[in-house]
Write a structure and sequence with these properties.
The structure is a homodimer of 440-residue chains. With 440 residues, chain A is of the alpha+beta class. Chain A has 14 helices and 20 strands.
Chain lengths: 440, 440
């Protein structure tokens, strides 16, 4: 696709463009710093990615799309410019490599993803990719190389299945290649377009120990940091997720002729249950969350007492044990509540994603690095899934969150300031240097 | 359609046929009574109607269908056999008339409807039609005519809009003739098929005072009488109905990254609200009912906190004032509940059906008639709409309910015993005689 001029770009993507309008002012301040992180360069690269696949509805850099290819091409150029050797692996991951001083050591890995959801924004994934590039380029240009080889990665198809990172962990099956992705392609076709190999996808798997460690910077996708005015979040882990189909069975009956006292209204049970889930989850100490996101009453007529209700229940926490304990409690509460008006309740799990704790050394290192730079920070869980979750089965991982204005993501309205991304990149750089010294 | 033999009928419609299997035993007992109500004849006519339009899925005597025409033809024959002059009015109502001894008096009207919902049963409407016919035939055969002319009516299209009775009350608009009815016809085409006039439908309206009064027998469509072992219900009135669209607005957000304490979950508000509606309605003295029958959460994904919820709210009671008071209270509760987690709630009425009280003289007369015959009885509201509701704007009305096994209606599983319908027919007959004496 032909790239628009800056004027066209501003006219077509006002929200995205506005994010970069004040770049030079922030960036000049950071250029004065001596650690090699260049805020102005970071901002101009963020803006360059934002121009690709831009539409009035948002960014369409979906995996394997022309825009995704163009973003990867730009990223490849910047990596090569910084002195990295670039390759694409069988799983479509774009990887730049810089030798270390000790070739016997496994590489340190950093990076995120450049792809977006359909009608997405220009920060989710991009902020981490460009921050990693900036930290890596600073190391390459510093004249003080790491002991470990350094690899910078753009993971393939994070948004629609974490394909690239899951393939490294050996979690992608050949059958997934037939799944549809945005833009009328199968996942296999999208993978082939970026230079991966759908036929050999399972060969992309790495052995545990292949990497010395992985650091990812990502936007928070929640308003905590932005609201509290904290520069970065040090992620303690990525929460586990269990999802259940819940069915409440009562008895459908005429809404005019059936007295209140003899009703077996499945929706009244469902209402009491979902309120109990909300209140119980809030009452427990900790940061677990539980959500009923979908509900349907049958037969669903205004003049018929609902005879059955289907709803979804999702529970997330850093500890799978907490999820299990909450689930046990929800089952107890559900059965008590159901019994009160002669209804039944059943639970069926249909989705499981295991929690991925961050490595204690990485957490401590990120925190100490931030402190040394005067960057305010707080420990927090990641409520959303990330590539780091897959890599955690191969190597110790750490994650940095940067603030998301209003917590918005997967939207053209998502926004993180260049100043915040630059702060994050500096913590990333300092942490890479410290981990390089601490790790074998 | 060719009518099946009795054997074919039994094989094809086991539930309907089973209803009549024990008829002769009940009926012989009632034949010994001296009031002229013939239980065996009543049963054989119920069975004859049940054969028409019978399918394995239930009865399909929808308005204007071949089966509806065949049922009307059979009913016409029985009315004529009893000495009634039969006509069809502009609104498709089939009416048999027997002169009284005082031609200056307005007629007494009794009857119900022969049409069914698609896949319906053989008691809703039919029980009242055949019971009215039986009571009227007993009067005609008694040698003791009434003072008032006596009319027996089969109202056109009760099930899909109460067209016949509403037309008499002047409530049907010409536009309704274009509405679709079951079987691929418009309402106007269905009306023309039974001999009515869609072009002149508004001329079917009658003046108040045209009838001296109206008595309808109907199945209860609720389990109260059957459960409590009471022979008949003396209806105090037909409840009014108001239906509202309720919308709860919160804020959709990521179900993993949004802490419980800052959620503006529209479904939590909706759950608390619908439970409050249920509990408040049950706590008030009286027999009002309120129902949330349909609910939808937006966007409706398991991993997104619902940002908006749409639900229906229906309130029914004999007194419109009670409905209004409950509605006011629900609005208060809804706003209180919504405020608690920073959500909004709005109400929009989209349906109104005014309550139709039965006439005190008619209620007393039905009760006294039942007592005189040793038929156990209880006063009760009608939670469902009936033709009597429309006729109430023209004349005083009374209604008799007979027991519905398990309260089931609009289903091939609906059932009322012949013994109970015969008891109801005897109360109807005795009440017609008493009202004939009491009314001008």
């Amino acid at each position: 696709m032909p790239h628009p001029t800056r004027r066209e770009f501003l006219a077509r993507t006002a929200p995205a463009a506005a994010a970069f309008a004040s770049v030079p002012r922030f960036a000049r301040a950071f250029r004065t710093l001596q650690d090699g992180v260049d805020g102005e360069r970071l901002a101009s690269r963020m803006e360059a990615i934002a121009r690709i696949g831009a539409t009035p509805e948002g960014a369409f850099r979906t995996a394997g799309s022309d825009a995704d290819l163009a973003a990867r091409e730009a990223f490849t150029g910047w990596l090569e410019e910084a002195g990295f050797a670039v390759r694409t692996d069988l799983a479509g991951n774009l990887i730049g490599r810089l030798p270390g001083t000790d070739s016997s050591l496994p590489p340190l890995l950093t990076g995120s993803h450049l792809d977006s959801v359909p009608a997405g924004g220009n920060f989710d994934g991009v902020a981490g990719s460009i921050a990693s590039l900036e930290a890596a380029a600073a190391i390459a240009a510093s004249g003080a190389p790491l002991r470990h080889p350094l690899e910078v990665v753009d993971f393939f198809n994070e948004e629609n299945g974490k394909t690239g990172s899951r393939a490294l962990a050996g979690e992608v099956t050949p059958e997934e290649m037939d799944l549809p992705v945005y833009g009328g392609l199968t996942l296999g076709q999208a993978l082939a377009r970026v230079g991966g190999s759908p036929e050999r996808i399972t060969e992309a798997a790495l052995e545990p120990g292949h990497y010395a460690g992985f650091l990812e910077l990502h936007v928070e996708q929640s308003p905590t940091l932005a609201t509290e005015g904290i520069d970065i979040g040090v992620v303690e882990g990525i929460v586990g997720i269990r999802r259940f189909r819940v069915r409440v069975s009562g008895f459908a009956n005429h809404a005019g002729t059936t007295a209140m006292g003899i009703r077996r209204d499945a929706l009244v049970t469902a209402g009491r249950f979902l309120v109990a889930v909300h209140e119980e989850t809030q009452a427990w100490p900790g940061r677990q969350v539980a959500t009923v996101g979908r509900i349907e009453a049958h037969p669903g007529a205004p003049n018929v007492i609902p005879g059955a209700v289907d709803l979804t229940l999702e529970i997330r926490d850093l500890r799978m044990e907490t999820i299990e304990a909450l689930y046990q409690r929800f089952q107890e509460l559900g059965r008590e509540i159901a019994r009160r008006n002669q209804t039944d309740i059943t639970f069926e799990q249909y989705y499981l994603s295991r929690a991925a704790p961050c490595d204690p050394l990485f957490i401590d290192t990120l925190e100490a690095a931030a402190e040394s730079l005067g960057v305010s920070n707080v420990r927090m869980p990641s409520g959303a899934g990330h590539d780091a979750q897959s890599i955690a089965v191969l190597a110790p991982v750490g994650m940095i969150f940067v603030p998301s204005r209003d917590g918005i993501s997967h939207s053209p309205r998502e926004f993180t300031s260049v100043a915040d991304i630059t702060s994050g990149a500096r913590v990333l750089l300092e942490s890479l240097r410290r981990l390089d010294g601490a790790l074998d």
